TrEMBL record, chain A:
InterPro entries: BMP_lipoprotein, Peripla_BP_I, PnrA-like
Entry membrane topology: Lipid-anchor
CDD domains with a match to the protein in the record: PBP1_PrnA-like
Family, similarity comment: Belongs to the BMP lipoprotein family.
Annotated ranges, domain ABC transporter substrate-binding protein PnrA-like: 43-343
Subcellular location: Cell membrane
PANTHER family (alphabetical): ABC TRANSPORTER GUANOSINE-BINDING PROTEIN NUPN (PTHR34296:SF2), TRANSCRIPTIONAL ACTIVATOR PROTEIN MED (PTHR34296)
Gene3D superfamilies: 3.40.50.2300
Residue ranges that the Swiss-Prot or TrEMBL entry lists as coiled coil: none
Top-level lineage group: Bacteria
Signal peptide, first to last residue: 1-23
Organism this protein belongs to: Streptomyces fulvorobeus
Protein name: Basic membrane protein A
SUPFAM superfamilies with a match to the protein in the record: Periplasmic binding protein-like I
UniProtKB/TrEMBL annotation, chain B:
Keywords, comma-separated and alphabetical: Cell membrane, Membrane, Sugar transport, Transmembrane, Transmembrane helix, Transport
Topology term for the membrane: Multi-pass membrane protein
Primary subcellular site in the record, as a coarse category: membrane
Pfam family, one: BPD_transp_2
Any one GO molecular-function label of the UniProt entry: transmembrane transporter activity
CDD domains on file: TM_PBP1_transp_TpRbsC_like
The species this protein was found in: Streptomyces fulvorobeus
Record-given protein name: ABC transporter permease
Annotated GO CC locations: plasma membrane
Subcellular location: Cell membrane
TrEMBL record, chain C:
SMART domains: AAA
An example Gene Ontology molecular-function term: ATP binding
Protein name (database record): Simple sugar transport system ATP-binding protein
Organism taxonomic ancestry: Bacteria, Bacillati, Actinomycetota, Actinomycetes, Kitasatosporales
Entry keyword Aminoacyl-tRNA synthetase: no
Organism: Streptomyces fulvorobeus
Length: 346, 371, 510
């Protein structure tokens, strides 16, 4: 009995010591030590964060540019998988509380959090990428992925020999479906006899389709075997597998996404078979918002980064598009002037 | 006689405490190795974790974790490893959200209906694993893991526009139809942020769990199976029936996990509904020794650590550090429990021997107690 | 207390047999010799030098190795890998080890192929691998625990040839068995153990199986012979043409119980004798309802219970003292009062309706502890902290507390000290007087003869013989248990001839 008590007491004391030793510095108010003159930009990334070679990285590039230009202090926080809405709210709140302005939320998952937090900090400018929130102090940075994809579809239809074209989506999210819809429309309006095979690598909350090059490779192989000669993979990291598979079939083209994949160090060896990449310039959105805040005229409302504003575009690395550039420009013009309406859903 | 109870309690507390202390020490070493001051980090966490809004956060998050811990613990008490709590709660929350979004009944009717739907869906999904185990001998570990994947696929299929999904204006987020205002669960108007009313349900669930296990025949049977399947069978427990029943209960409890988030926070099921809480529940049930109070403490600790992470990341620490703490705690807990359990058992045996010897000497009885 | 006052001397270069009934203390002795258990007192000397073994490693270092009854081989490894596992330092894990294995195998004629997969080997080959494993580690003394139990006669002969080879090379073999014929054919010396003590040694050249059997079971008849019969003619349990099959790992369906029929009347103790593993456990399981019957009818006090669930049978007055109390009778890590509830959770005083009545259960546990003399400091201690005898007393007390009509007592006094044993016997007798029907299964022939009103012998799942406990001797019973005798074992079945009438069907109630 006594030995047990001693044992337990020892544990309790150790624990108590550990706890008290750490509970020093009794501060109740947040002292951020903010320098009024210096600009502070807060970033809340989606799952993956900086270094995902895709969407978040693109936002990070915009942040880096703004940081260099305005000599800004930055803070980058990243979402974890398995979060609740409350966690995202906390993240935005701590940035706003910490004196960061603007606070950029990367990814549509932040929409509800922005709805709740933005009205509480009317003096802070918030940026919301890929979604639309109502609050007055929010700039909704949205992209017309479908327009960029439409152009990719036009290019694919023109380059394909027999009109067999493939689309690989990472996950069957609405966002990816926008890519699919625009791409399919672009193909079919250029060559009505063409056929587009659409395949998603995973569904719903299983986001593995964005990070499985093996799945991308297998899907692309399957499409190539069925006769496809142009494959567009809007599938994050899985796209690398697709590009690799396509490079193995003579005469076939691949189309990349998010960044110029022909310049990606890991994929540049396949540059000869990468027709183009559909680029979504999140960096421009982040930079523009930072600049507007810096200039004292913060952007608000929906900022559509459309084809017209070069918010989405096709890359021309390797000059594979030269022979069809005229037709692409024509299509672009029609989209910009509204002659062509690109669908956002299939 | 009572002192044995007291001793048990002390031993029971000693293990998790030991584990937590060791875990913090290990973390301190890790922090020191990365060139950061460990105590400063803990200081930040505790400072921040004790603020009012942090307390609210911890209570809210702890509510979810507590229910997850209970769901797993029901299985654990039977030696059933319900890995599928994760799939069960997601599927349950999804169907509950879909039903809740489709109906507009008065809240007093609709809220219980939503909760009941979630419990039934969770129970059915877990029940599949239970039935497979007793009829086909499929290990519940394997079947529940697979059912998790199937649940993900089912939700992925149904959460589409034109099925049960509903696309937002920006065209990027798909979710079930949001619940009507009337279906929102009440909140405690605390400042600065409210405490979710669902904490009441969690407390009720905890009390029910305790009562069922400790005070009913059913609970006794369940514990018997958990302690010794062979003894349970010989004592007349229908082990197969118990397996199915406890999987159903575990699944129904799992159905509740998504409810605080659904009824107090998100009001809809979308692609970003929290995932992986079932696995957190396993850690918490281990930490709390399957005891309702222990699980509560484990859940709060877990929430506290997560609250602390955000702040640590904000202060420039690697956010992975809390992952390290959590992992080390679970490891330490498993080891500490086993060490303390063996120690306690041995101690009791030798103590009983000693007491009997003393008793025998007092009675100067010639009868000898065999070893 | 399993063993006391064991004296045994084994000479080098001999095969020394250790014989005794089940539970006589052979395995405990062997565990002590192999360092798996420590003796409370006494000494062990090897080559004249006193030694003390803390663990099997110490024993191996002294050249003592053990071949277990249940093989300890990894199926999916080769023979070589199994042999070197844990002794990689001796000859490495490659060709040197392979060469050494061949060398040992050739030297003793074991015929072991180092690269064969263990899963492809038969039982006898596996046993030879086990022997080789021990020799590989440098053992000069081998302990073989019931090595013939798993072998067919031809394999037994081959094993004995191997043992003779070992002996010829100067190695010592300690051979544990209860098969007297085998012992006489292979052993150079025999030591007999009974009730945990050595009762004598025998020279195989001048001993018959009968003499050995007498030494083994002892000639003393059981203590208090209360032979006043309490048997009534009211049947309590009738078992009619019971058949139970089991599928063994090879997928062969085998009858473990076949054509078993008997009746136990109120106030009657029916004893079942038999070498363990001949269907007794299965019989208990079947009567308790833990295994579904293939055919047959069970009737308890006039009610057909053939398909009734175990719990209902227990509520109907069936009490059980299980063969393996740790597996079937107790929750070792639960307090005594919870163990008191075990098996009777639906009955008073343990519960009221769906709820437990902890207060009443605790109070009644106190009563059992008092009345059945369970030595414990309290009812909150775990069952594991009690001695075997006290655990058994708790079980007996619990089972007797629900006014049973039928008691199934499987080895009720196994592993129980002498004081508790007498107490348990008394309790069974007393309950019998009050009209309890008892099915008694025991390996202790004295217990069987002393307590039973009727005796049956079980052999390979059948009841092959019956006997009157008033006239039967343990030797006669023993020979019937090995299948050598059947039918009604009439009193003195020939003074010199233990072979009784071989009539397998004669003794069954049809």
């Amino acid at each position: 009995m006594r030995r047990v008590s001693k044992f337990a007491v020892a544990c309790t004391v150790t624990a108590a010591l550990a706890f008290t030793a750490t509970a020093c510095g009794d501060s109740s108010t947040e002292d951020t030590g903010s320098d009024k003159d210096q600009m502070k930009i807060g970033m809340a990334y989606d799952v993956g964060g900086r270094g995902d070679n895709s969407f978040n990285d693109s936002a990070a590039r915009g942040l880096d540019k703004a940081k260099a230009e305005f000599d800004a202090e930055t803070k980058e926080l990243t979402a974890k998988s398995g979060e609740t809405p409350a966690d995202r709210e906390t993240r935005l709140q701590s940035l706003a509380e910490g004196g960061f302005n603007p606070v950029v939320a990367v990814g549509f998952a932040y929409k509800d959090a922005i709805d709740k937090i933005a009205p509480k900090y009317p003096d802070v400018s918030f940026g919301l990428v890929d979604s639309v929130a109502e609050a007055k102090n929010v700039a909704n940075i949205v992209f017309t992925e479908e327009q960029g994809s439409y152009l990719a579809g036009v290019a694919a239809a023109l380059k394909s020999k027999d009109g067999q074209i493939g689309f690989i989506g990472g996950v069957d999210l609405p966002l990816i479906k926008k890519f699919a819809a625009g791409f399919q429309q672009g193909v079919l309006e250029t060559n009505p006899k063409a056929k587009v095979q659409i395949q998603y690598l995973s569904t719903g909350s299983d986001l593995s389709g964005f990070g499985s090059p093996d799945k991308g490779k297998a899907a692309a192989k399957g499409m190539l075997d069925k006769g496809a000669d142009v494959v567009f993979a809007a599938a994050g990291g899985s796209g690398a597998g697709s590009i690799e598979a396509v490079a193995g079939k003579p005469g076939a083209w691949s189309i990349g996404v998010d960044s110029d994949q022909a310049k990606d160090p890991a994929l540049s060896k396949y540059a000869a078979t990468i027709l183009t990449s559909v680029v979504k310039n999140v960096d421009a959105g982040v930079y523009d918002l930072s600049k507007s805040v810096h200039d004292g005229k913060p952007l608000t409302g929906t900022q559509a980064y459309s084809l017209a504003k070069d918010g989405v575009s096709l890359t021309t690395t390797g000059d594979h598009l030269k022979d069809i550039q005229a037709k692409l420009d024509e299509a672009k013009k029609k989209i910009v002037d509204g002659t062509i309406k690109v669908k956002t859903t299939l | 006689m009572k002192k044995f109870d007291k001793e048990r309690l002390l031993l029971g507390i000693a293990a998790p405490l030991l584990a937590i202390v060791v875990a913090f020490l290990v973390t301190a070493l890790v922090l020191a190795a990365t060139g950061k001051a460990p105590f400063n980090a803990f200081g930040i966490m505790f400072d921040y974790g004790l603020k009012a809004d942090s307390q609210v956060y911890i209570l809210n998050k702890g509510t979810t974790y507590y229910l997850a811990g209970l769901a797993v613990a029901v299985g654990f008490r039977m030696n059933l490893f319900n890995i599928g709590v994760d799939g069960q709660y997601r599927l349950a929350a999804f169907f509950a959200a879909a039903l809740g979004g489709a109906l507009t009944l008065p809240g007093a009717l609709q809220i219980p209906l939503i909760i009941l739907t979630a419990m039934i869906v969770g129970a059915m999904w877990a029940g599949i694993a239970g039935v497979l185990k007793v009829t086909r001998g499929v290990s519940e570990v394997v079947s529940t893991i697979m059912l998790n994947a199937i649940a993900t696929a089912i939700i992925g299929y149904l959460l589409q526009q034109g099925r049960l999904g509903h696309l937002d204006e920006a065209g990027t987020k798909i979710s079930t139809t949001p619940l009507p205002e009337s279906s929102r669960f009440f909140e405690f108007p605390t400042t600065p942020t409210p405490v979710w009313g669902f904490i009441v349900v969690a407390v009720v669930a905890g009390v029910a769990y305790w009562f069922a296990l400790a005070r009913t025949r059913f609970g006794f049977d369940l514990r018997t199976v958990g302690q010794s399947g062979s003894a349970a069978e010989a004592s007349g427990v229908d082990v197969k029936k118990m397996v199915v029943t406890s999987m159903l209960i575990s699944g129904a409890m799992a159905g509740l996990i998504g409810m605080p988030t659904l009824l107090n926070d998100s009001f809809e099921y979308s692609g970003d509904f929290p995932v992986g809480i079932g696995f957190t529940g396993i850690a918490i049930a281990l930490l709390g020794r399957n005891h309702p109070v222990g699980i509560a403490l484990g859940a709060l600790l877990w929430a506290f650590l997560e609250r602390g992470t955000g702040k640590l990341e904000f202060e420039g620490y690697d956010k992975e550090i809390v992952g390290v703490i959590q992992g080390v705690i679970v490891l330490c807990v498993v080891i500490a429990y086993e060490v303390v359990r063996r120690y306690g058992l041995k101690r009791q045996q030798s103590k009983v021997g000693a007491e009997l010897a003393a008793q025998a000497a007092r009675n100067s009885d010639q009868q000898e107690v065999s070893a | 207390m399993a063993n006391h006052d064991i004296d045994i001397t084994v000479s080098r270069g001999t095969v020394h047999a250790l014989v005794g009934e089940n539970g006589a203390g052979k395995s405990t002795l062997m565990k002590i010799l192999y360092g798996m258990q420590k003796p409370d007192e006494g000494t062990i000397a090897v080559d004249g030098e006193q030694v003390s073994f803390g663990n099997p490693g110490d024993a191996i270092a002294r050249g003592i190795g053990m071949v277990h009854q249940h093989f300890m081989l990894a199926d999916y490894l080769t023979v070589l890998e199994n042999v070197v596992l844990g002794s990689e330092k001796l000859y490495g894990i490659g060709d040197r080890a392979r060469a050494r294995i061949r060398e040992i195998s050739d030297a003793y004629g074991l015929g072991v192929r180092p690269d064969a997969m263990v899963e492809d080997l038969g039982v006898a080959d596996r046993q030879r691998v086990e022997i080789l494993k021990v020799l590989y580690r440098g053992a000069r003394t081998l302990i073989l625990d019931e090595p013939t139990a798993v072998l067919v006669p031809q394999e037994v002969d081959a094993l004995f040839d191997n043992l003779r080879e070992l002996k010829a090379e100067g190695l010592t073999v300690i051979f544990i068995s209860h098969k007297l014929g085998e012992v006489l054919s292979v052993a150079d010396e025999i030591t007999v153990i009974r009730r945990g003590t050595t009762v004598g040694t025998a020279d195989p050249a001048h001993t018959t199986t009968k003499q050995l059997a007498e030494l083994m079971v002892g000639s003393e008849l059981p203590s208090p012979e209360t032979r006043e019969s309490t048997v009534t003619d009211v049947p309590m349990l009738t078992v009619d043409d019971l058949r139970l099959t089991a599928t063994d790992p090879d997928g062969v369906v085998r009858a473990v119980l076949d054509g078993v029929s008997f009746t136990i009347h109120k106030g009657e103790v029916l004893g079942i004798a038999g070498v363990e593993g001949n269907g007794q456990s299965e019989l208990v399981d079947a009567i308790m309802g833990m295994r579904p019957l293939d055919t047959g009818v069970l009737t308890l006090d006039g009610a057909d219970i053939s398909r009734t669930a175990t719990r209902k049978r227990r509520e109907g007055g069936m009490a059980v003292i299980p063969e393996d109390r740790h597996r079937h009778g107790l929750l070792l890590e639960a307090p005594l009062w919870e163990n008191r509830i075990l098996g009777h959770v639906t009955e008073r005083p343990n519960s009221k309706g769906a709820f437990l009545d902890l207060k009443a259960a605790r109070a009644d546990t106190e009563r059992i502890v008092r009345e059945y003399d369970v030595r414990t400091p309290g009812i909150e201690v775990t069952a594991a902290s009690l001695s075997g005898g006290n655990q058994q007393k708790l079980i007996v007390g619990r089972e007797m507390s629900h006014s049973p009509r039928l008691l199934i007592a499987a080895h009720p006094t196994r592993g129980v000290d002498v004081g508790a044993q007498a107490q348990i016997w008394d309790q069974i007798r007393e309950a019998r007087r009050e009209g309890l029907a008892v099915l008694l299964i025991s390996a202790d022939l004295d217990e069987l003869i002393g307590l039973s009103d009727t005796l049956r012998v079980m052999y390979r799942g059948r009841l092959v013989a019956d006997a009157d406990p008033a006239t039967i001797t343990p030797e006669e019973l023993g020979s019937a248990m090995t299948g050598a005798a059947g039918g009604h074992l009439a009193a003195p079945a020939g003074a010199d001839d233990t072979r009784a009438v071989n009539d397998p069907d004669g003794g069954e109630d049809r």
